[in-house]
Specification:
This protein is of the alpha/beta class. Helix content is 40%, strand content 17%. The protein contains six helices and five strands. Strands 2-1-3-4-5 form a five-stranded mixed sheet. Helix 4 links the parallel strand 4 and strand 5. The longest helix is centred in the first third of the chain and has 15 residues. The chain is globular, with a radius of gyration of 14 Å.
Length: 149
């Protein structure tokens, strides 16, 4: 069993905060020099804004930090192409994710741009997403861009 470090625990806490707010339980933290410099969670529902994914919120909360060469982006779920694109754009060298079983995301895209991607495959993160998807499938499918007319 993979142990959960304090940074992934903080990302999971962000995911649970988003869920408690009525949103999608995905959380993220940005770490530099073993310190959290940004944290965020998916706020698409809460802010009625399709762009506020967890990683985007996290980067926005970090603000202008100069460069990202010595940062690590943690996320409870494998980033989608929007969030992977932000990681590529800002040259984040390493992304650590809680799981990719419920959503495969854009791992190959990030890796093709030189980002090291570590998938911890944490049961806690899988269960959090599976429970949410079962309870609120319409929000999940909206979030990943799969809508039925």
């Amino acid at each position: 069993m993979t142990s959960i470090d304090s940074f992934m625990r903080a990302a999971i806490d962000e995911a649970r905060l988003g869920l408690a707010e009525g949103g999608i339980p995905i959380g993220s933290v940005l770490v530099r020099d073993q310190t959290i410099v940004g944290r965020g969670h998916n706020k698409r529902v809460q802010e009625s804004n399709p762009m506020v994914h967890a990683e985007i919120d996290c980067l926005m909360q970090a603000g202008r930090i100069g460069h990202y060469r010595n940062t690590v982006l943690y996320s409870t779920l494998m980033p989608c192409y929007l969030c992977a694109g932000a990681a590529v754009q800002f040259q984040v060298p390493r992304v650590i994710v809680g799981e990719s079983r419920t959503f495969p995301g854009a791992r190959a895209f990030m890796e093709s741009h030189g980002i090291e991607v570590v998938d911890l495959d944490l049961d806690e993160c899988v269960t959090l997403m599976e429970d949410f998807i079962e309870a609120r499938p319409e929000l999940w499918f909206e979030d990943i861009g799969v809508l039925e007319d």
